[in-house]
Inverse folding.
């Protein structure tokens, strides 16, 4: 029960917030993976996707890497603006 509460609580609270929330969400998922098979499978699949995306990005020319980074920043910026407007 302690692992369940410790794993889920930060994930639920930090999911809609910008910043290091995703890092804490993945840490919570890692904690849940110590007890639950489904969490282990989700964590493995997520790692595979992140590793594949990283390998693909590193194989691209620097301009493509810069555009991917810019796209990520624009995405985060759009989320921040949306959160700002929703809270107003």
């Amino acid at each position: 029960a302690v692992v369940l509460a410790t794993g889920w609580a930060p994930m639920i609270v930090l999911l809609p917030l910008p910043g290091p929330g995703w890092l804490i969400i993945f840490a919570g998922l890692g904690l849940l993976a110590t007890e639950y098979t489904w969490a282990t499978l989700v964590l493995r699949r997520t790692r595979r996707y992140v590793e594949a995306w990283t390998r693909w990005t590193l194989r691209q020319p620097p301009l493509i890497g810069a555009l991917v980074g810019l796209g990520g920043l624009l995405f985060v910026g759009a989320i921040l603006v949306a959160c700002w407007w929703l809270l107003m």
Q: What stands out?
A: The radius of gyration is 16 Å. The chain has a mean pLDDT of 81. Helices lie at 2-14, 21-33, 37-59, 62-87. The longest helix spans residues 62-87.
